[in-house]
Structures are given as structure tokens and as C-alpha cells.
Design a protein that fits this description.
heterodimer, A: mainly alpha, MetI-like fold, B: 253 residues, alpha/beta, six-stranded mixed β-sheet, 10 helices
């Protein structure tokens, strides 16, 4: 066998291995989608989105309060986390070559590696204990702590991509430095920052552990942010570990709803990125 | 050369980064409503000199400068001069066109007014500035289009309009035509002729024909020093220093 034929064989073997690896990577995603959709679709109907949970044994009922609760907690987390994360990112990009900047960057890196259940405990100590009750705010604080480090680093990268000449153009017009950073440089990077924010929100939406002992749960409608609040993820957890078949069905259906929510956010983020690439000539 | 009536009067200017001196002991005066061309080989300190005039130089890491720069007799480096306000009197056009990519043509020109919360009729100012920059006829029907939809030459004239909209007294131009084709360059040069009536202009250029065409005075920088400064005609016909003659006749640099 000559060298050329040998190379062709090696090439073929490697191609097959790579293809198998790609299939292997897709397999978990495909099976998760298949399982959740096939099990969940049976329990989906209009009242599932609008009704409160029913006690065991009673037919019907839904996760309406958990859908609202999830949106409420995530919205609150955005109010806390987005300005902090984006602001820290802009600071790191503009003034990050300092001792403080390095400290912030190091902290963000450590924080992004902290397990989410630990963040939940921190929020419990920070919010639940002083307030003496579980609340949507406590859950939002936990999710915000998870969002901030990834968002800060993402924003920093994107703001650094804005050319120096754009900064100088604004400074040359007699625009103060802080205004240049926020109204010109950040605005130029906004498409990318919005994408990073949506991905951070999608990740926070799917978290269960930080909500278990912060937002807890609630069987009823609740709009007050200082009260225990239901969320899809905790509801799924409770339904899934229960011994009742009816609740198992509800867990699958709620999981499907959550998947659609997070998937929708991801697809929106992708669409935004694509438009941005098109916009940049 | 220094006269009290000069718009800009620079005496004993030194500037650099950290231990590195970029320009040394520069003395020069720029009369009002005139064009000063600054020529010299790359790295001779032309741009640094220009950036000292609106205090953009000090934004670089470790930047420092000493000496006096008087604008209408006011020391621009004194403690009570806000560099932000100074830059509204001393506008700047950069080497590469740098319009704000997320803004429309209109918003680019109005950016200085909007960001500085200047009240008044922005549409009027935008039209006037675009006309001064000889761009109005080309863009008047698509003011809301992205600034990036313009060609390079148009973008540079847009940047000039943007600088003019805040009505500066002095206009600094850092090789404004070096990224442009000959036709766009001719337009920008024509523009400089027209703007002279209203503004005092300092232009850095690598192109000696351009310096000869657009300026009243020319300053030749070499290795951070001002070698010679005189009427443009004199510099290009009978310079007093042999080094200037070598440079303008293309023997080096």
C-alpha cells in the first residue's frame, strides 16, 4: 500500500470519527427535545396557561401562576442585573486597565464559577433572612447575581470592539467622557450587548436551585414582589418528585412551556445577531 | 513669528508619552482666518502637535505636555479651562472618516448639538453645515439613511459637517484626505479654501502638493522639532534651511 492510499484511509477514518462525535453531541439535545415534547404535549391546553394548580385528585388546573411568577422574577432580576452587568462591562472596557479593573474582572470570573445553589444561599442570607419571608425579590436577587458576571464580561468584550476612532470623534466634538462612553460607544455596541443580555436572561430563566429557598413557591396568584412566588422551574421540580401520575404529566407539560420560553429567547438573540452582521455591511 | 493678534500662539511646547519626548520646544503662531499646513515625515510629531491644540493628546496613557498654547490670548492648559469646552471651540477632523455607525446622516451632523444638549433648530444647523461641507446636494433626500451608506469621500465630508455643526473657531484636520481618492480629495481641498473665511485651520498632511495648494503658511517638522515655518510660497520656493529644501524637493522622507 502506498503513502497516498494510506492517507486516504486515515482521512476516511477521521471523517467517520468526527461525524460520530457530532452525532454524539446532538444526541442529548435531540433526546431532551423529543422526550419533553412527546410527554408534554398531551397536557397542553389553553387552561394550562391560565388556571391555578389544582390539589391532587382534582382534574384540570394549570401553571398560570408559575408562568406569571417566572416572568415576574426574571423581570425583577433584569431590573437589578442588567444595569449592574452592563455598567460593570462598560467600566471594564473603558477604565479596566487599573488595579480596580483587574479586581472587578477577577471577581467576575470567580463569581461566574460559583454553583447556582450557593448563590441561592447567599440571596437567602441577604434578603430572605432580613425580610423574614420568601419573596420574588429574593429570587430576583439570586438570578441577578448569576447574570451580572457573564453579562459584564460579555459587555466588556463587545465595547472593546468599538474602534478608538469612534470615541475620539465624540471627544473631539466636546462631548464629556462619561457621555461618550454611554451615548456613543455603548450605543455602537448595543446590538451585541442586547444579544448577550438575552442569553443571560435565558440562562437565568432556566435556573431552579437559586429559587428553591428564595422565591420558594406559591399555589395562588401573586403580584406582590415581597411575597413567595411560583416559578415554572420550582413547579416542575415539585411536580416531578411527587408520587402522582397526574402531577408527573403536569411536570412534563410545564417543562415544555419552559423550553419554549427559553428557546424563544435564544432564537431572538440569534436573530438579533444575524441582523447586526447584515447591518455591518 | 509670535504676534499678539494671532488666533493660536504656541510657545515652548514640549509633549510626549512617559520618558519619550515626541515634540520639543515648538514655537509657532497661527493668524485668524488662515490655513497652516504641517508637513514632515512620519513620526515627526505632526499629529501630536495637532492633538495638543485641542487637548486630545492628554487622553493617551502617560501623556504629558509643557509650554504655553494661547487661544485668543487664553492659556488652554490653565486649570480653569475645561478641555471638554475647549474642544467645542477647537474642532477636529480625523485621518480616517469616522462617522457614528449607528446614527443616520442627520443624527451624525446633529450629534454634537444633541449630545451637548444645545437647544435650537437642529434641522437648520444640519442643513447649513452640510452645505458648508459641500455634501448637502448629495444627501438631502436621504438624511435618515445610515451614515455607513455613504462613500468614503462623502463620509469624510460628513465628518467635516459634523465638526462644523458645533461652530468651532479653529478646525484641526489630521490628514483629512489621505484615505480618499483624487476626486474626493479635490472636493475636500476646495472646501478648505471656502472654510478659511470663517475658521482658522490647521491641517496635517503627507502630501506636499496639497500643502502648497491649500495653505497660507507651512510648518516643517522633523524629529519632533519645528525646522522651519514661513509663508507657504517661501517654504516651497526658497526655504532657508537645507533640510526643508531636501524634504520639499523629495530628496528624503
Amino acid at each position: 500500500m502506498n503513502a497516498y492510499a494510506g492517507r486516504k484511509v486515515v482521512n476516511l477514518v477521521m471523517m467517520v470519527l468526527c461525524g460520530l462525535a457530532a452525532l454524539g453531541a446532538l444526541l442529548p439535545l435531540g433526546s431532551v427535545l423529543w422526550l419533553v415534547v412527546s410527554h408534554g404535549v398531551a397536557g397542553l391546553n389553553f387552561t394550562f396557561f391560565t388556571a391555578l394548580p389544582k390539589p391532587v385528585g382534582e382534574a384540570g388546573g394549570g401553571v398560570g401562576n408559575a408562568v406569571v411568577g417566572t416572568l415576574q422574577i426574571v423581570a425583577l432580576a433584569c431590573v437589578i442585573g442588567l444595569p449592574l452587568g452592563v455598567g460593570a462591562g462598560v467600566f471594564l472596557a473603558e477604565k479596566g486597565d487599573s488595579a480596580l479593573g483587574n479586581a472587578v474582572r477577577f471577581t467576575a470570573e470567580v463569581l461566574s464559577g460559583v454553583p447556582s445553589i450557593v448563590v441561592g444561599i447567599v440571596a437567602y442570607g441577604l434578603v430572605v433572612v432580613p425580610m423574614k419571608r420568601f419573596s420574588a425579590i429574593a429570587g430576583a436577587v439570586a438570578l441577578a447575581i448569576l447574570m451580572v458576571p457573564t453579562l459584564a464580561r460579555g459587555t466588556e468584550e463587545l465595547v472593546r470592539l468599538v474602534p478608538r476612532s469612534i470615541r475620539e470623534a465624540a471627544l473631539g466634538l466636546g462631548v464629556p467622557e462619561w457621555k461618550t462612553s454611554l451615548r456613543v460607544v455603548l450605543r455602537t455596541a448595543l446590538g451585541g450587548v442586547a444579544t448577550a443580555a438575552l442569553l443571560a436572561i435565558a440562562r437565568a430563566t432556566g435556573e431552579t436551585a437559586p429559587l428553591l429557598f428564595t422565591a420558594l413557591n406559591n399555589q395562588y396568584w401573586n403580584v406582590r414582589p415581597d411575597q413567595p412566588t411560583a416559578s415554572l422551574t420550582v413547579q416542575i421540580f415539585n411536580y416531578a418528585i411527587s408520587p402522582y401520575d397526574d402531577w408527573h404529566q403536569k411536570a412534563w407539560s410545564a417543562a415544555l412551556v419552559l423550553l419554549l420560553l427559553v428557546g424563544g429567547l435564544n432564537l431572538t438573540a440569534r436573530a438579533l445577531t444575524r441582523n447586526r452582521l447584515k447591518g455591518a455591511r | 513669528m509670535s504676534t499678539p493678534e494671532a488666533k493660536l500662539n504656541v510657545t515652548h511646547l514640549n509633549a510626549g508619552y512617559g520618558d519619550k519626548a515626541i515634540i520639543r520646544d515648538v514655537n509657532i503662531a497661527v493668524p485668524a482666518n488662515s490655513v497652516l499646513a504641517v508637513i514632515g515625515p512620519s513620526g515627526c510629531g505632526k499629529s501630536t502637535f495637532l492633538r495638543c491644540l485641542n487637548r486630545m493628546h492628554e487622553l493617551g496613557p502617560g501623556a504629558h505636555s509643557e509650554g504655553k498654547i494661547l487661544l485668543d490670548g487664553l492659556d488652554i492648559n490653565s486649570g480653569d479651562v475645561d478641555p471638554v469646552l475647549l474642544r467645542r471651540r477647537v474642532g477636529m477632523v480625523f485621518q480616517r472618516p469616522n462617522p457614528f455607525p449607528t446614527m443616520s446622516i442627520f443624527d451624525n451632523v446633529a450629534a454634537g448639538l444633541k449630545l451637548n444638549r444645545v437647544k435650537g433648530n437642529h434641522a437648520e444647523v444640519v442643513e447649513k453645515s452640510l452645505k458648508q461641507a459641500a455634501l448637502w446636494d448629495e444627501v438631502k433626500d436621504r438624511l435618515n439613511a445610515s451614515a455607513l451608506s455613504l462613500s468614503g469621500g462623502q463620509q469624510q465630508r460628513l465628518c467635516i459637517a459634523r465638526a462644523l455643526a458645533i461652530e468651532p473657531e479653529v478646525l484641526l484636520m489630521d490628514e483629512p484626505a489621505s484615505a480618499l481618492d483624487p476626486i474626493a480629495t479635490a472636493k475636500v481641498e476646495q472646501l478648505i479654501h471656502e472654510l478659511k473665511a470663517r475658521y482658522t485651520i490647521v491641517i496635517v498632511t503627507h502630501n506636499m502638493q496639497q500643502a502648497a495648494r491649500v495653505s497660507d503658511h507651512t510648518a516643517f517638522f522633523y524629529m519632533g522639532e519645528l525646522v522651519e515655518h514661513d509663508k507657504t510660497e517661501t517654504i516651497f520656493t526658497r526655504p532657508s534651511k537645507p533640510r526643508t529644501e531636501d524634504y520639499v524637493t523629495g530628496k528624503f522622507g
